[in-house]
Amino acid sequence: MNKKPKSRNWVVTFLLFATVGVGLFSSRPIAHVIKTSSTDEDQRIPLPEGMTDDASRLNRTAVRKIWNVPISEDPERQLADLLSHAHEIGLRVSIAGAQHSMGGHTIYPDGIVINMLPFNRLELDADENILTAQSGALWEDIIPYLDKHKRSVAVMQSNNSFSIGGSISVNCHGWQFGRAPIASTVLSMRVMLADGTIMECSRDKNRELFSLVLGGYGLFGIILDVKLRVVPNERYRFEQHIIPVAEAFSTFDAKIKDQPDLQMAYARMNIVPSRFLDHVILNAFFSEEGEIPMLTKPGIAKLRRAIFRGSAQSDYGKELRWAAETKIQPLLAGKVFSRNQLLNEGVEIYENRSADSTDILHEYFVPRRTLASFVDDLRRIIPKNNADLLNVTVRSIKKDEDTFLRYATEPMIALVMLFVQETTDEGERRMETVTQQLIDSAIKHNGRYYLPYRLHATPNQFHRAYPQAKEFFRKKLDYDPNELFQNRFYLKYAKN
């Protein structure tokens, strides 16, 4: 009974902004958004007992046990006992947090899945600006905790739905400008090895293990807790430029890059088929003096979701969304934000809830010098394969100095792409084809692809993109000689 008035409220909000949209909207876009919202039901089927999956919804797997880290006395001893028991009976162990990877990185068939989410205590040393977080803590809990202390996260993804252990295991990055991946903010961590030994790792102590666990996909041990460098929460001023893609770098260099107090920056490319990747929105945020806005829940989430989901499998929906992002979105969002507000948004605002399709992330890293020719390949490969691209976000990343299996071997431009894929064998085959073609292009342009997503790369492509991988897997045997920690990623690439 309470849902209908709320639905009417956001529709009224949309109609209000449509009315003042300077002719941007008419009855067709209003009807399109209302139709999208009215049919946007959660059709996802809960997993049966004894099964697990990840964010792809394409890796449903039977496992022997899902073991939640206990919050009772001495959970670390119980965790060590579990590892000993798994070794004795010959079971493999995978490690899971929020399970937002997409290639079975948290799954081993008929194995034990350790759910780290209950292990989530936080402690801040405000004098030293160091957060100690247990690995199951989610960013959606960390951000409000830090906000109360006028602090913020230095580097994280653009959404808050992930666990800190998972973020470190994939060595995530975000749109914090002039920063390397999250590994650069990790001061130290405690890791439980396969034999139950707990080792403290940092740049000064057990440095090799430190570099292997960062971006190590849970293959070397269980991250227990992490010490992270945090930064002040600040007031940010928003600036936006909408320009032809050919002018992106010159505009960025002239109007954004060298401005004082630049803190965050990203670009979004036009995905409308008739103007595919021809324009880009540059978004930049600059710190400024003044009152810091209070942390609140993301605004007009239902409207934003309806416009975004309405762009899936709809050329008209993509046109409407581009118009909303370039004409209306800046007016809706406002001009001043807190740093924490920009980070405090969950994936649920946009996630696919259909039973017939799922959203699949890709990410590619190329040096700036080859970006233009890589984008030329995107314009050819994606339409040729009839891939339904929903989003391209562009970020810059500094060189990674800490991670063994690093993707940023030099300063890189990251292109984060979101595709919608049918959950059929044919849909999977088509996605595999387009993925392999995009990976070949990234490698050709002196780049890499990001490893947390679907395992569509061939072993040959994987090793071409990550020539250090053979040594990475060899070193795993030094720390886990019985290969207790395994997952689908390891199964596909370690032996090939």
CATH class of the largest domain: Alpha Beta
Q: Please indicate the count of domains.
A: 3
Average residue-wise pLDDT: 93
**How many alpha or pi helices?**
15
Structural class: alpha+beta
Number of strands: 19
Radius of gyration: 22 Å
- List the uncertain runs: 1-25
Lateral strand order in the biggest sheet:
15-12-14-13-17-18-16-19
Q: What form results from the Cα inertia axes?
A: globular
Assigned CATH architecture of the largest domain: 2-Layer Sandwich
CATH topology of the largest domain: Alpha-Beta Plaits
Distance between the termini: 56 Å
Biggest pleated sheet: 8 strands, antiparallel
Approximate helicity band: 25-40%
Strand content: 15-25%
Explain how this protein is built.
With 496 residues, the chain is α+β, with helices and mostly antiparallel strands. It has 3 domains: 65 residues, 2-Layer Sandwich (Uridine Diphospho-n-acetylenolpyruvylglucosamine Reductase, domain 2); 111 residues, 2-Layer Sandwich (Uridine Diphospho-n-acetylenolpyruvylglucosamine Reductase, domain 3); 224 residues, Alpha-Beta Plaits, CATH 3.30.70.2520. 33% of the residues lie in helices and 23% in strands. The strands form 4 sheets. The chain has an 8-stranded antiparallel β-sheet with strand order 15-12-14-13-17-18-16-19, sandwiched between helices. The N terminus is likely disordered.
